[in-house]
UniProtKB/TrEMBL annotation:
It comes from Littorina littorea (Common periwinkle). This is MASP-related molecule Type 2. InterPro entries: CUB_dom, LDL_receptor-like_sf, LDLR_class-A_CS, LDrepeatLR_classA_rpt, Pept_S1A_C1r/C1S/mannan-bd, Peptidase_S1_PA, Peptidase_S1_PA_chymotrypsin, Peptidase_S1A. GO terms for cellular component: extracellular region. Ca(2+) 3 binds at E405, D413, D452.
Length: 760
């Protein structure tokens, strides 16, 4: 992994770091692959044998494309020119992030199994240089049926071409550009479909769980009601739909009726834009009809209602992870009776009908339409709430729940907050991270909510309250829980300077912290690869777990609070899925000393940068306090910086590749390294920021690695162990001139104290 930034775990001569997948999320846990899959040696990704030597980087490090007999031909736009299977996507180079290049020539041959036809559908971004003659003589994409002698169409400009089913199992797509003027290009989904002329027809009132062998086609459903289930559907915990499924259902109700879909159960693999597994609903007979929504994830969608008597549902799964699937009850309602229309036609919520909802009370609640904390919000929503309070007051906004489709620039679903200037948003919010509290500068705030056709989460719930403006505290002051500002040098002086004493809540000079009852075995020399720690000797070390599996380390600094790294939570911010295990010596073995505690809140620095790892700091609030004792206790916070050469200790449960005590709590002695040395050109070449500290050896050997992100770099100062650093990142593991990089906690002491005071 030469030159790749790794967000850490722990301890070995050669370790496994995290891989950043195609969706930008971090994957660090290892899993055994199904019997028929192939395991990538370095990244432990499970792949199908059929994707070996197909020209794609499926393993993440190109291992699956090494030692191939002959490399597959390239399309000219990237990726293989020969496409085989049931479905995939092709696109022009750089799409959709940048323009395609001049003088490009690309070609794809698409083959689906015999007995199927190729169907192609362009994604909603289409930008190819337009020819004023309408003949696309400059830049264009061409679709051919069967061979190059049968041109179906040539396309340019910005009008999205229509979906098209070809007449055979072979299609050819070509793309060319001339020497000037380029655009974003195109993306195109292709998939295998049962030929329309031979589509099976059946009249069904109910549909049992569909076996995989009957799912590669379209089933027609006539009548007034019925059931639809994904192949292999069952409520048992082990049930899941098969990979590479391709299913379709055409529902046709009686004349003068509408179709209502009610989701009894729903659990599909989640992915950005539902690009992996998805269920799509179309308002008509087939996939050429308007798209009502594309669904994935684990949250049960709300009811979907057609505009007429026809509805089409398509379900695709990729070759990877599967979920339990879905179960749908469909019914019809007559459009001839007023009562039926009243009950089944969704009425836009106030504020979502094209007119902002005016809120003038001193406090209140705003939620996404239909919010209940569990179901997904509807797609294609546009809502506005205008909060107005008396002049001279300002408005506090606090989110209590937040989960929406994520994009780096919040291009799809988002909440926007406007303050004073309604032309430019002060905040653009999306994803799963609970937003920071917001305080307006004026007496009027506009909140906007927008969603596209693809559902992305449970939505949001916020509260607002007005009050007279308060003076913002300066950097030299401490913000008390009630908003009062006091000089920071009064914090931890033994006196209650804040009204409720929160300035004395967590202090570096706590005489009880960082003093384990069981002393660690300390090495006076370098320990290559680390050693197992003495049970109970690092009582502040915890395992931070996602859905019950160890993902990161952490440091207990208060019975209610754990210090961790922000990057641990990039892929999931829902507190209900996180827990903390304290007092454990071995991950796979239970202990009478262990304490499993749920998480009530995850707070990260608002200025955390996932590219530079700046401000990679998080605090976890526990739902119940840890019970302190011989095997569970708190570390101290630092108040000073230490010189280079000072020997500290890293601890954690991370990867070791058999060098030592897998799955057990390990320790290694590492000296601190000066920032000047760590930033040398042949070391980290300036990537280590002032808020970070390096620790390790020039020649490698002992380091943090996969599974220890967020854990402590502990240093003994004055007879107390302090959490001097937070395990953050590095290049490879235990490599030459690539020591571990840690967030220097002393730089964040004030933020830690103010945050704990605010949420205690």
């Amino acid at each position: 992994m030469e030159g790749v930034k790794v967000l850490f775990g722990l301890l070995s001569v050669v370790c496994i770091g995290f891989l950043r997948g195609a969706n930008g999320q971090l994957h660090g846990d290892l899993r055994s692959c199904p019997a028929n899959d192939v395991t990538c040696n370095n990244t432990h990704v499970c792949i199908l044998p059929s994707v070996r030597c197909d020209g794609r980087n499926d393993c993440g490090d190109w291992e699956d494309e090494s030692n191939c007999p002959t490399p597959p031909p390239k399309s000219g736009c990237g990726g293989p020119s020969v496409q085989r299977g049931m479905f995939d996507i092709i696109h022009s180079m750089n799409f959709p992030y940048d323009n395609y290049t001049d003088q490009a020539t690309c070609k794809w041959d698409i083959f689906v199994p015999t007995g199927y036809h190729v169907k192609v559908e362009f994604v909603p971004i289409f930008d190819i240089e337009y020819d004023v003659t309408g003949q696309c003589r400059r830049d264009a994409v061409y679709i051919y049926d069967t061979d190059m002698n049968h041109l179906v169409g040539e396309y340019c400009g910005s009008t999205i071409p229509p979906p098209m089913e070809l007449s055979s199992n072979h299609a050819i797509v070509t793309f060319k550009s001339d020497y000037s003027h380029t655009g974003k290009g195109f993306g195109l989904h292709w998939f295998a479909v049962v030929p329309t002329a031979t589509t099976p027809s059946a009249t069904l009132s109910t549909v049992p769980p569909t076996p995989a062998s009957t799912c590669n086609g379209v089933i027609r459903l006539d009548g007034k009601s019925g059931l639809i289930a994904s192949p292999g559907y069952s409520l048992t915990s082990s049930a899941h739909y098969p990979p590479s499924a391709n299913c379709g259902w055409q529902i046709i109700g009686p004349p003068a009726s509408k179709i209502v879909l009610h989701f009894d159960d729903f659990m599909l693999e989640n992915s950005p834009n539902c690009s992996m597994d998805s269920l799509s609903v179309y308002d008509g007979f087939d996939e050429t009809a308007p798209l009502l929504g594309t669904l994935c994830g684990k949250y049960r969608p709300g009811d979907v209602i057609s505009s007429d008597r026809q509805l089409f549902i398509s379900f695709f799964s990729d070759g990877g992870v599967e979920g339990r699937g879905f179960h749908i009850t469909w019914t019809t309602t007559s459009t001839l009776t007023t009562s039926a229309v009243t009950h089944t036609t969704p009425v836009p919520a106030e504020g979502c009908d094209g007119h902002p909802r005016l809120l003038t009370s001193a406090s209140g609640v705003v939620t996404s339409p239909g919010y209940d904390g569990t179901s997904s919000y509807l797609g294609l929503q546009s809502c506005q709430w205008l909060i107005t309070v008396p002049q001279g007051e300002v408005i506090d906004i606090k989110f209590t729940d937040f989960e929406m489709e994520w994009a780096r620039d919040c291009d799809y679903d988002f909440v926007a907050i406007y303050d004073d200037d309604f032309l430019k948003a002060k905040e653009m919010l999306c994803g799963q991270r609970l937003p920071l509290d917001f305080t307006s500068t004026s007496h009027t705030v506009l909140v906007k909510f927008t969603s596209d056709a693809e559902v992305g989460g449970v939505g949001f719930n916020l509260t607002y309250a007005s009050h007279p403006p308060r003076r913002a505290c300066t950097s030299a002051e401490y913000t008390c829980k009630n908003g009062l500002c006091i000089p920071y040098d009064l914090v931890c002086n033994g006196l209650w300077n804040c009204f409720d004493g929160d300035d004395e809540l967590i202090c570096p000079n706590n005489p009880q912290c960082g003093r384990p009852d069981i002393q660690p075995h300390l090495d006076s020399h370098r320990v290559v690869g680390g050693r197992e720690g003495v049970e109970g000797s690092w009582p502040w070390q915890v395992s931070v777990r996602l859905t019950g599996k160890h993902l990161c380390g952490g440091t207990l600094i208060d019975p209610y609070w754990v210090l961790c790294a922000a990057h641990c939570f990039q892929s999931n911010w829902r507190t209900t899925e996180w827990s903390v295990m304290a007092g454990q010596q071995e991950l796979m073995t239970s202990s009478p000393h262990q304490q499993l505690i749920n998480v009530s809140k995850i707070i990260t620095r608002h200025d955390y940068d996932d590219v530079t790892s700046a401000n990679d700091v998080a605090l976890i609030k526990l739902a119940q306090p840890a019970k302190l004792g011989r095997y569970v206790n708190v570390a101290c916070l630092p108040s000073v910086t230490l010189p280079p050469g000072e020997v500290c200790y890293i601890t954690g449960f991370g990867e070791t590749l058999s060098t030592c005590c897998a799955g057990k709590l390990k320790q290694a002695a590492v000296p601190l390294i000066s920032a000047n040395k760590c930033n040398l050109p042949d070391w980290y070449d300036g990537q280590v920021l002032d808020s970070m500290v390096c620790a390790g050896y020039e020649n490698g050997g002992a380091d943090a690695c996969g599974g220890d992100s967020g854990g402590p770099l502990a240093c003994e100062i004055g007879g107390h162990w302090v959490v001097y650093g937070i395990t953050s990142w590095g290049i490879s593991c235990a490599d030459v001139k690539n020591p571990g990089v840690y967030i220097q906690v002393v730089n964040y002491l004030k933020w830690i104290q103010e945050t704990i005071a605010k949420y205690s």
